[in-house]
Design goal:
alpha/beta, Rossmann fold, 3 domains, 7-stranded parallel sheet, 7-stranded mixed sheet, 20 helices
């Protein structure tokens, strides 16, 4: 009965998003959707219009949407039925009409098998739709509430895209694979409830957006409302505000968010990107180590969390967003918002939010002061460990941040480097950058080269692992007559991807069996044994090896001139053990302050 439950959730959320009319062209695979639409009409929640010709149904929906300005779904079964909607979709695209195609489909295991009425409906309408998404087929082994949250947010995103949240209104396509049974059962499990009061799962408040139940237009700025126990979680802001959050504007965007949070009296947990000015507002130190605070000290639990930008790193920080009884406000921009856990209560425009700061509170609240003291306590506990734990990753990151000059730019490679800096970072005066769009290993060294060429007056550095360095080693190959960047690259060489040792694959219990460590080393950490000095010599790049934090600081004291590689030998470091030590120190400090 999961197909019927899915359909009921979709229709319920459509109504919550302001849908008042729907058009159905009946069929067998779409039966759960037909039952759900009929039930909603019987309850007086929407008007259902039934047409036997899919092409006609689509244009009826187009007319309804054009006349009302509301999103109107057209629902069909699988196969050629969906293809018959294409003319109306093309018209909706050209005219900017919010048409929503809700197509039933066969489950994935039937595709490509010759099963009847099974066509390739994936991105069937191509570039004609503003947004396309295929829902996951309901699963019996997963909590229904978790799946329903994902279904509801998919509806919210579809409606927002159709209404022009990311630009011009137009058609969208939700493809819904359904497994049998397709008819309702009176004894079926109740449908998971939506938000209280008939509200959409995700409320959007975006300046200058079209008016609708999901997308509410507000003037210029965004007000959150009073809630002193608000924690700000700051992720990657690249491109959130369009061109205003690229280049130097990106650095300023971080400063603006820090300033807004300080004025509002909100503590900030931040990923390691952007500046941490020596003077002025900033983030709490050692973010991932602090993320367990609400579980350790109940008095610090936030009632509201504002997620600014997109989280890309640590699991402990991301877990904060899944806390029960906590309102989650996502501050994004550019027509997209980050909500992989499907927990957002509201989505607001980041630029509008920071522009709408009200009067600052009279003095620091006790709650904010408690967060500040927690940060100070964790810093006092872990700073000595970072100083003596070289060449463990976080210790190397701390040494790099301490050694760089004020105003320097530091580009972080993939995987371990940004996580190490996130754990180690306090206040340093460095501006940290990274490629976190897809967070891939591809082209990290070349990206750092491009940054250095773009800002020749700014001391530019990179911190990468050996695999990231080797994956893009040809970035060192700069032809005669080409501009050579002034870039110093610090390579933490642990001869492979040691970060896998901190994941479930590196669990000591899993590695206790004969041969398990060999398998782990070969298929996960993938050692290469490459001589980095020889690789640098082949391309004429300077290479230096260091064995201590002091030696690293001495080398980094030289201003970047040409391409210079500084290798830190970290082979044999127990990354998992080092991480456990820092977490234990932080936990002890927090328990001692409670």
């Amino acid at each position: 009965m999961l197909a019927v439950c899915l359909a009921s959730v979709l229709v319920d959320e459509l109504v919550r998003c302001g849908v008042t009319d729907a058009v159905l062209s009946p069929g067998s695979r779409s039966a759960p959707l037909a039952y759900a639409l009929a039930a909603a009409e019987e309850e007086g929640r929407l008007r259902l219009h039934v047409r036997v010709d899919e092409r006609v149904a689509a244009f009826v929906a187009l007319g309804l949407a054009k006349a009302t300005g509301r999103v109107v779904p057209v629902v069909t079964t699988s196969g050629t039925a969906v293809a018959n909607l294409h003319p109306a979709v093309l018209e909706a695209d050209a005219a900017g009409v919010p048409l929503l195609v809700l197509s039933a489909d066969r489950p994935p295991e039937l595709r490509g098998t010759g099963a009847n009425q099974t066509a390739d409906q994936v991105k069937l309408f191509g570039a004609a739709v503003r947004w396309w998404h295929e829902l996951g087929t309901p699963e019996g082994g997963r909590p229904l509430e978790t799946q329903a949250a994902a279904w509801r947010t998919a509806v919210d995103r579809a409606v927002s895209a159709a209404l022009g949240f990311s630009g011009r209104p137009g058609p969208v396509h939700l493809n819904v694979p359904l497994r049998e049974p397709l008819a309702p059962d009176p004894a079926a499990t109740p449908v998971p409830a939506g938000r209280p009061g008939g509200a959409p799962w995700t409320e959007l408040r975006i300046p200058s957006a079209p008016v609708g139940s999901v997308v509410d237009s507000v003037a210029g700025s965004v007000a959150l409302g009073e809630e002193p126990r608000t924690l700000v979680v700051l992720g990657d802001l690249t491109g959130v505000g369009g061109k205003s959050t690229l280049g130097a504007g990106l650095t300023q965007a971080y400063r603006t968010v820090f300033g807004w949070a300080a004025q509002a009296g909100y503590p900030v947990l931040a990923e390691p990107f952007g500046p941490r000015d020596v003077s002025g507002p900033g983030a709490l130190p050692h973010g991932p180590l602090l993320a367990a605070v609400p579980d350790l000290i109940a008095d610090l639990a936030p009632r509201r969390i504002v997620l600014a930008g997109r989280l890309t790193l640590s699991r402990p920080v991301a877990a904060l967003l899944r806390r029960p009884d906590t309102e989650i406000v996502v501050a994004g921009g550019g027509g997209r918002w980050a909500d992989p856990s499907h927990v957002a209560h509201r989505v607001v425009d980041l630029m509008g939010l920071v522009a709408g700061a009200g009067d600052p509170p009279e003095g620091e609240s006790e709650w904010s002061a408690a967060w500040r003291r927690a940060g100070e306590g964790v810093h006092a506990a872990v700073a000595p460990a970072l100083a003596r734990d070289f060449p463990a990753g976080p210790a190397v990151a701390a040494a790099v941040l301490d050694a760089l000059p004020q105003g320097a730019r530091l580009f972080l490679g993939a995987s371990a480097a940004p996580r190490d800096v996130e754990v180690a970072r306090d206040v340093d005066g460095v501006d940290v950058w990274a490629s976190r769009g897809l967070a891939g290993i591809d082209g990290c060294l070349s990206t750092a080269v491009g940054m250095a060429l773009a800002a020749p007056g700014v001391p530019t550095y990179a911190l990468v692992g050996d695999l990231t360095f080797l994956h893009d080693g040809n970035a060192l190959m700069i032809g005669p007559g080409e501009a050579v960047p002034d870039l110093t690259v610090v390579v933490v060489n642990d001869d492979g991807g040691s970060i896998f040792g901190t994941l479930e694959y590196g669990d000591p219990a899993r590695l206790a069996y004969d041969g398990a460590r060999g398998v782990m080393r070969r298929v996960f950490t993938t050692p290469t044994g490459t001589d980095l000095a020889a690789r640098c010599a082949a391309h004429g790049a300077s290479h230096t090896s260091v064995a201590s934090a002091q030696a690293l600081a001495e080398v980094l004291a030289w201003p970047p001139t040409g391409v210079r590689v500084v290798e830190v030998d970290a082979r044999g470091v127990d990354r998992r053990g080092s991480e456990a030590t820092l977490n234990a120190l932080a936990e002890a400090a927090l328990r001692g302050s409670s």
